[in-house]
Structure formats: C-alpha cells, structure tokens
Amino acid sequence: MKSLVCLKQVPDTESQIKVNPGGTGVVTDGIKYVINPYDEFSVEEALRLKEKFKAGEVVILSIGPDRVTEAIRTALAMGADKGIHVNDANLNDGDPFVIAQALAAAAGQGEYDVIFCGHRAIDDDFGEAGAMLAEFLKLPQVTLVTKVEVSEDKKTATVERDIEGGKEIVEVSLPCVLTSQKGLNEPRYASLPGIMKAKKKPIDQKTAADLGISAEAKLQAKNFSMPPERVAGKKFEGLEPAEVAKVVVTALRAEAKVI
Amino acid sequence: MSNVMIYGEIKAGKIKKTAFEMASEGRKLADTLGGELSVVLIGQQAEQFAGDVAKYGADKVYIVEAAGLENYNSEYYAQALAHVIGEKKPDIVLIGHSMQGKDLAPRTAAKLGVAAIADCVSFALEDGKLAGKRPMYAGKCYADWVAVASPQIATARPNVLEVVENPKAGTVEKIAFSLDTGRATYTTKDLSLDTSGKVDLTEAEIIVSGGRGMGGSDYSLLEEMVAIFGSRATVGASRAAVDAGWRPHSDQVGQTGKTVTPNLYVACGISGSIQHLAGMGSSKVIVAINKDTEAPIFTKADYGIVGDLFKVVPEFNKELKTLLSE
Lengths: 259, 326
Prior knowledge:
The complex is a heterodimer of chains A (about 260) and B (about 325).
Chain A (H helix, E strand, L loop, with lengths): L1 E6 L1 E3 L21 E3 L1 H17 L3 E7 L4 H11 L3 E5 L2 H4 L3 H13 L5 E5 L10 H8 L4 E10 L5 E8 L2 E8 L2 E5 L11 H7 L4 E4 L1 H4 L7 E7 L8 E3 L4 H14 L5
Parallel strand pairs in A: 1-4, 1-6, 4-5, 5-11, 6-10, 7-10
Antiparallel strand pairs in A: 2-3, 7-8, 8-9
Chain B lengths: L3 E5 L1 E2 L2 E2 L1 H17 L3 E6 L7 H5 L5 E5 L9 H15 L3 E5 L2 H13 L4 E5 L1 E5 L2 E8 L4 E7 L4 E5 L14 E4 L12 E7 L12 E5 L9 H10 L3 E5 L1 H5 L20 E5 L5 H7 L4 E6 L12 E4 L2 H17 L1
Parallel strand pairs in B: 1-4, 1-6, 4-5, 5-12, 6-11, 7-11, 14-15, 14-16, 16-17, 17-18
Antiparallel strand pairs in B: 2-3, 8-9, 9-10
Helix pairs in contact in B: 3-4, 5-8
C-alpha cells in the first residue's frame, strides 16, 4: 500500500499576520511554522492504511525553502518512510498552478495507490492543489474526505465526504487523489523513538529541473492589506438578564437591523 | 467584447442562491465590459431553472444535459463545464465557492490550463481584467489576485455578493456534449442530505454558536434560539466544544473549521480566540454572551453581554419570540 502525502508547512494559527510596507506580501520574520493541520490528517490516514495492509510505504512530498525539512522530519517521526523535498526559488512561492504542476511531476516519478492532500492550506486558503494535481495526473479526486476504506484487493476505496447539509458516500477506483477534511482521524503524536528514527530516514531533494517543469504562474497577487479593524460596540455589564435581553433584542432590530 | 459566464449550481433538485449571486455580479461585470452574461446549467432537467437565472441578468443560458450528468461528480461536470467554456470562450468565468464549487472549479481550471482565484469576497475590473479580492490566513489579511492567463476563472464566497434582479432575455441554448467515460471518476453510493431544511453554516444568515462556556453537549437553549429565528439560522460551535466531543466537526467555526459570513453571529460562552475570530470576524453583527468580562470576544462584539448564558439566553429567546411574532 503505497501512499503519497502532499504536505505544506504553514504559519502557526497563533501567528499575528502583518502586511509588509510595500503591500506585496506578509511579513515572515518571527513566524513559527507548523504542518498544515489538514495535512496532519493525511499523514495519519496514510499511516493507518499502511498498518491495515501490513505492508507498503508512506512518502511525504513537500515544496518550499530549507525550513520545510523540519515539517517533513516531523511527518517521518510520526511513522512515514521517506520524504521528497522540492526546494526551488522558482517554485517555493508558486501559485496553485505551479504548485500542482510540481506536485504532479514529483508524484508522476513514483507509483502510488493513494495520493493525499489537505483540503486546503490555512495560509493561502486556495484549496486547489489536490483537485488540480488529480487532473494533471488524470486521476479521480474525492475532496473533503471524512472516512476512507480501501478494499482488500486495493482496487477501490469507499469514501465518505463532507457536503453542505449532509454526507456523501462514494466509491472510487485506485489510484486516486483524496483531500483530507477535519474529522477524518485524530493524528498521532511523534514518539521519541519515532523522532530518533526519523533522523536517519531519507529525504530526496529536487529542483524544478529535476521535475522537468517550468514555473509559469497563472495568478498574481498584489495590494496586500489588513482587514478593517473590528472594534467593540456596546458592552452591557451588571444588568438583569431580562433587562439586557430586551435592550439587545430591540437594538438588533431597530439599530443593527439584522432581525 | 469581453463576455462573462457563470456556473449555476443545482443541488438536490433546486438551484442554489449562489447562482443568483454569481449572475448578479456577472451582470455588473458584463455591463462594464460591454459584453454578455451567460449562465451554464448542468445536469438533468437543468432547463427548468433557465427562467430563474434570466431574472438576474442572463442574456444566454447554456444547458448541458448529457447522459451521465444526473448526479454531480468532479470529472464529468468539469468535462462539461470545460467544454462549454472552450466552445463559447468567455473571458471571465465565475463559480460559487460552495463545496461543489471547491471541487469543480480547480479541476475545470486545470483542464483549461489555468488556476482559479478562489473564495473571492469582491471583484473589480482593472483595464478590463478581473481582480478578485480574497482573504488569506482565514481572513487575517487580504490581497487582490488577477489571472494572467485566459480564461480568467474565479470562485466567490457564498452569501457575500449582492443579489440584484435585472431581467434579461435568458435565451436558452442546449449544448451538445458527450462525456469521455474513459476518464476515471467516482460513483455516488449514498447521498444523505439533512432534509429538515437546516441551512449550512457557510450559507446561514444567522448563526448561534456555543463554546466552552456551554459546559457540555446540551445545546438545547441555542437550538431553541435557532428555531425561533427560523430556517435561515443554524447552530455553530467553537473548536473547544468540537474537540470536547460536544458538537460535530461540521459545526466548527474558526481558522481550522469553517469561515462564516452571517448577518448575525451570537457567540455564547465563547472566549474569542484569534483562530475563532478568524472564522467569524466578517459577520455583519456580533453579539457575545460570556461570564468573563475580560474575554477577548468583547473587543470585537457589537453587543457584548457580560453574564451567565444559561440565564441570559432564555430571556433572549423570550424577547425574540415576542418580537418576531409581531
């Protein structure tokens, strides 16, 4: 059971995000980086599949600068077997098209039963890499996955996915691309022995040239700005519940006009 | 002439509000560009909705009703949409950023050799090119994104764009199309939709949310408030409540949950962490009820009530019932 987990290193959710003076991007100094939470579900699910089939490999694929090695090592410490680190200045900050192209090229150099992506990365929130990568590889995709069951013959998977107001159960042939949604599983913590073993696991380094791709962006960003500061309105303290309820409900209609 | 095309999503036999939102926005863009607005409807019996979208400005309605399109799946719908885009060559394509849209737009874009500007909250035209303003880091910052390739595809966040009636001809054209069934895709085995008419968090106009202060899985007080508000309201939860197992993952509002855009967000027993605020910060009006006067949520709430939610919410519900029955 060979799985590929596409993993992205992103700023921690506690990070205060500030726009740089030129408005061309965000300030990255002092940011603490973590594995994209949705990718942790992917790593865990891939590890479970390997454990279920008692054989196979979990490969971690990530694109980004040197610091990304740490994220790959963490996934290796959880139990993954090897890493592929695509590190190229032309690709690292790529738009969804460039990233998906690079992921597809790297994935195409191996043979995988399942390719996992997080349903979105919590930095750029694009959520396109998984679907685009699937299309480039001409593989079926199932997005927003909350449960995965692979058949014994590894030919199909029964997958539960999140849709507005309900759940959908689908059957998909392998190989396929799945994008992970919260609720898929509870990711394990890396154990101390796992961390020690991870230091010896191989991480292949690749550039755009190794992947045979050119980095032609299809999208461009500009005018980075901070959202309008939301300030407090009225605060009611020390009032009886009945009293304050009346005041606020009245205001919601008369003043705020939302009901 | 620059033309605009929008995708009208049909779900469970109904056309979604996002179709009207996209059409209204598409109409504005088409007018500025001096072009036409077309709407694409895919699936079985899609034609019945042509009149609905014509009301919101569609000059043309393209219908694709090929065999195999009865139920949504990414590959087949992306094939159909890419086909129509390839045939009609619009400059701009708008798709709603619903769960279907999130699945459909990137695959369609990839088929056409481009990427989509995802989850836009507003659009502008600069030298005739589309610029989509979109939030990142769960709304901690924004940027304008442009497509440097053609067609320019973007998805728009549901519940944000204004719906404006502007009836146009809506001339129907059926597009001949047969699926390449040689391309692998998934088959739907079961579709369980909550038929109680419950609205999804990402589409709700009013959200009543509970956090750690709820103290347990009994959300009946909040469910009562939602029932009083009616079908446009639903219950949400903070990460603390979801991680404690009190509420399902699908109810989570926040940076690692859902980003919501309601007119009214009532936060009960929620302290207001950065991550939670990232998910609900663009609510039009925020009401917060919390015992702790120092709770960060009070720095962002339009109406902050310091008090015991178990005493305040019942009174709130009483007042609401009276007001809304008038």
